[in-house]
């Protein structure tokens, strides 16, 4: 008989509610859950295809060990774990604790149990060579929050449902469904801004899908966000639009900011950012005049060489216009299960406690920038990485200069992958430990409720039972960590529970951590049987979630010391670098990435319904740039940078700024034609074959994946033939 399940989608940050119909162990239908308190029935193509992903024949379901010929063979869990641990122990003996690295991929943030145990496992390894996907995505925003508010997770969220003016930079929620701005019903909420007479102003090098919902759009030169925002802040001070008394009541450093931005009038920054000085002044004045307003920036403001400074200036705009901690401005959510206390106990809110061995890039929240991983593997010396553990993710496609990283991965003495696919990264693993599918475990968005535009909470029970020999990510990490000498979680009660539980044959269930966070949170029952507050048992009785109300003012408890540190010395000093960039000669042509609603980085391309249709991995080129390069629409073109070259089909369009070429990231799957058979048929190139790992945000070390200087030319006719993976690169699983 058919059964209906209600669940939160785990495939992006939007937290959309799904109504999933199953029969005989298969998903037969997926639709948006109209009763979901947050997403209100919204459904994107990724959520609709969740059954295809579950049934994917290329998904790894049993442990695999790579043979000398490069092919994988199935082995038992016990043999796989023994082999994994033996190799890691050998690397630690030979090279010390820092000889083993751990990479945490993006899918982990959609998995509460893996997220919790990954931190325990990382500390148990005792290595400084920890890496995560945040340094390819969000660290500039998170570091700015640490410096201003005292916590990386303290990110003020635009009150999208009530704002009168939203200035959005470098973000495309129509494709991403929101990023560090969890919205659920993305279309309804953003179109709702215009519907109620408010304004959405988009500033982006592309006229994106989100521009269709905006009241106006302005092109901006990639990497020019900090310059543009300096022009905005300068105007606010120059025109007397800052309420100094109001700002001084909540923040320190206002006068320091005023002095620092005095040298950046709109006329000086306009050429660098590509936005007219008159437009900058007008937007600043409209921002100040609005009844309520919010400035929000995302990927475009983060993935350039001034990402942290640009993120800081966004905060400055919100604070000095009086829109910080204000309805319709930016507010801190009040999540039912707040991980910030756990993060504090784990010592996550730290910066530059150590630096990478080769280049000296800074640690942040315990991890080093992924841009440094390849050189840490290949450069000899004390602390050289010779063994690696990866948890989900695909840095061989998401990291800069990924060709160099792939060569580095191939040179490792031992590599353990916890993953459900043999992809461009895990094909180099010596052993693959596959967790169960997300539909076979519970789901709770531990992080994204803290970035949401409305306070809600929801727990999803498994749709399907876990296979008899199946293991969740946290169980794999737990077992590896204990066999390697015991996890050191950093919280005494959990540390004691882990060790006593291991000896008694009992595993710590991460859901108990969630229950504790719920009970002790702002909406919890405080362990009182008489309380009407939340606990996990009560939450499970609400399959559509529980609405906890709109975001409200009251930021002081979320800020260290109760006051915003508006002028961190580190960021004030960085303005010298911004000033030097204003005087530097401009590059004629630069490359940026882009994203489509049907994909999430590189991990949605093996689902047939999500990749069918026209080629979406084209190179967008402005007509003027196409003419200069002798390129016409539909022609194959070559894009060349300092580290490599790729080819794509040109799409000549005025929807991209002059001087900018745009190619989607996450493609280039030809080398895994045996193991990702749908993805391998896509024609798209690997964008990160031409991004340069030496280009980083100097403060956070985050890879500057946008704004890569390039040359554009017509491809030679012979290059039309598609490259096929060499026999040595084959990763087919051995049959039988």
3D architecture notes:
It is a single chain. The protein has 736 residues and is an alpha/beta fold. The protein folds into four domains: 3-55, N-terminal domain of TfIIb, CATH 2.20.25; 64-136 and 354-507, Rossmann fold; 156-331 and 561-575, Dimethylsulfoxide Reductase, domain 2 (3-Layer(aba) Sandwich); 587-723, Barwin-like endoglucanases, CATH 2.40.40. The protein contains 25 helices and 31 strands. The strands form nine sheets. Strands 5-4-19-18-17-6-7 form a seven-stranded mixed β-sheet, with helices on one face. β4 (64-66) and β5 (72-74) form a beta hairpin. α4 (112-125) runs parallel beside α19 (473-483). The longest helix is centred in the first third of the chain and has 19 residues, at 77-95. The radius of gyration is 25 Å and the shape is globular. The model is unreliable at 490-496 and 719-731 (pLDDT under 50).
Oligomer state of the chains in this structure: single chain
Low-confidence stretches: 490-496, 719-731
Strand order of the largest sheet: 5-4-19-18-17-6-7
- CATH architectural label of the largest domain: 3-Layer(aba) Sandwich
Briefly note the structural class of the backbone.
alpha/beta
Please report the number of helical segments.
Answer: 25
* Topology, number of strands: 31
Number of domains: 4
Write the layout of secondary structure elements.
Blueprint lengths: L2 E6 L8 E7 L2 E7 L12 H4 L1 H6 L8 E3 L5 E3 L2 H19 L4 E5 L7 H14 L4 E3 L6 H11 L7 E2 L6 E5 L3 H4 L9 H10 L3 E5 L12 E3 L6 H14 L5 H5 L2 E2 L1 H8 L4 H8 L3 H13 L4 E4 L1 H4 L4 H14 L9 E2 L8 H6 L5 E5 L6 E3 L8 H6 L8 E5 L3 H4 L3 H9 L3 E5 L12 E3 L9 E2 L9 E4 L1 E2 L12 H11 L8 H13 L5 H11 L15 H5 L5 E5 L13 E2 L3 H15 L6 E3 L15 H4 L7 E3 L1 H7 L6 E5 L4 E8 L7 E3 L45 E2 L1 E4 L22
Parallel strand pairs: 6-7, 6-17, 9-10, 9-13, 10-11, 12-24, 17-18, 18-19, 25-29, 26-28
Antiparallel strand pairs: 1-2, 2-3, 4-5, 4-19, 8-14, 15-16, 20-22, 21-23, 25-30, 26-29, 27-28, 27-31
């Amino acid at each position: 008989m058919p059964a209906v399940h209600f669940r939160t989608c785990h495939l992006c940050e939007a937290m959309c509610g799904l109504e999933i119909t199953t029969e005989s162990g298969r998903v037969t239908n997926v639709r948006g859950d109209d009763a979901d308190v947050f997403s209100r029935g919204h459904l994107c193509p990724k959520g609709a295809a969740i059954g295809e992903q579950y049934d994917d024949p290329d998904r790894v379901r049993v442990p695999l060990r790579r043979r000398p010929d490069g092919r994988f063979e199935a082995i038992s869990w016990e043999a796989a774990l023994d082999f994994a641990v033996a190799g890691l122990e050998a690397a630690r003996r030979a090279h010390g604790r820092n000889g083993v690295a751990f990479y945490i991929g993006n899918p982990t943030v959609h998995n509460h149990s893996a997220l919790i145990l990954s931190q325990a496992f990382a500390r148990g390894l005792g290595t400084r060579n920890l890496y995560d996907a945040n340094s390819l995505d969000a660290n500039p925003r998170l570091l700015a929050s640490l410096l201003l508010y005292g916590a990386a997770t303290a990110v003020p969220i635009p009150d999208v449902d009530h704002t009168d003016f939203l200035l959005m930079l470098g973000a495309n929620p129509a494709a991403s469904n929101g990023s560090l701005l969890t919205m659920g019903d993305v279309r309804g909420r953003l179109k709702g801004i215009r519907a109620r007479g408010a304004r959405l102003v988009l500033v982006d090098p592309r006229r994106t899908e989100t521009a269709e919902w905006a009241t106006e759009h302005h092109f901006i030169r990639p990497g020019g966000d900090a310059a543009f925002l300096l022009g905005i802040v300068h105007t606010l001070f120059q025109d007397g639009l800052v309420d100094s008394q109001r700002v001084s009541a909540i923040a320190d450093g206002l006068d320091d900011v005023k002095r620092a931005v005095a040298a950046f009038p709109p006329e000086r920054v306009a050429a660098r950012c590509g936005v007219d000085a008159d437009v900058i002044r007008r937007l600043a004045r409209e921002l100040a005049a609005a009844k309520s307003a919010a400035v929000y920036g995302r990927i475009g403001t983060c993935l350039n060489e001034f990402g942290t400074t640009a993120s800081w200036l966004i905060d400055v705009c919100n604070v000095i216009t009086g829109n910080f901690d204000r309805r319709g401005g930016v507010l801190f959510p009040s999540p039912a299960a707040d991980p910030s206390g756990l993060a504090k106990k784990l010592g996550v809110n730290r910066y530059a406690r150590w630096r990478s061995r080769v280049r000296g890039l800074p640690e942040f929240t315990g991890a080093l920038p992924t841009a440094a991983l390849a050189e840490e593997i290949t450069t000899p010396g004390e602390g050289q990485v010779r063994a690696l553990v990866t948890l989900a993710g695909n840095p061989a496609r998401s990291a800069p200069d990924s060709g160099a990283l792939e060569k580095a991965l191939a040179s490792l003495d031992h590599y353990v992958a916890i993953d459900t696919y043999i992809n461009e990264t895990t094909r180099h693993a010596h052993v693959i430990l596959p967790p169960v599918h997300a539909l076979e475990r519970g789901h709770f968005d531990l992080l994204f409720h803290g970035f949401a535009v409305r306070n809600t909470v929801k727990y999803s029970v498994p749709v399907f039972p876990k296979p008899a020999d199946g293991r969740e990510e946290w169980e794999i990490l737990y077992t590896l960590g204990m066999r390697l000498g015991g996890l050191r979680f950093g919280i005494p009660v959990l540390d004691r529970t882990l060790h006593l539980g291991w000896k008694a044959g009992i595993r710590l269930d991460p859901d108990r951590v969630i229950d504790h966070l719920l009970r002790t949170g702002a909406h919890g029952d405080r362990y009182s049987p008489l309380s009407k507050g939340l606990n996990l048992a009560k939450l499970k009785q609400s399959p559509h979630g529980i609405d906890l109300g709109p975001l409200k003012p009251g930021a002081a408890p979320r800020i260290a010391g109760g006051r915003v540190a508006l002028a961190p010395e580190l960021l004030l000093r960085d303005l010298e670098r911004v000033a030097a960039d204003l005087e530097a000669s401009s590059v004629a042509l630069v490359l940026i990435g882009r994203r489509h609603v049907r994909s999430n980085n590189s991990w949605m391309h093996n689902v047939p319904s999500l990749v069918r249709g026209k080629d979406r991995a084209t190179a967008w080129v402005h007509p003027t740039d196409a003419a200069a390069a002798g390129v016409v629409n539909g022609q194959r073109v070559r894009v060349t940078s300092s580290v490599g070259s790729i080819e794509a089909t040109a799409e000549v369009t005025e929807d991209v700024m002059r001087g900018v070429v745009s190619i989607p990231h996450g493609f280039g799957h030809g080398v895994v034609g045996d193991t990702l058979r749908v993805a391998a048929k896509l024609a798209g190139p690997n964008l990160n074959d031409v991004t340069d790992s030496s280009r980083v945000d100097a403060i956070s070390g985050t890879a500057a994946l946008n704004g890569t200087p390039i040359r554009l030319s017509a491809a030679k006719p012979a290059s039309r033939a598609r490259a096929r993976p060499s026999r040595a690169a084959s990763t087919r699983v051995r049959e039988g």
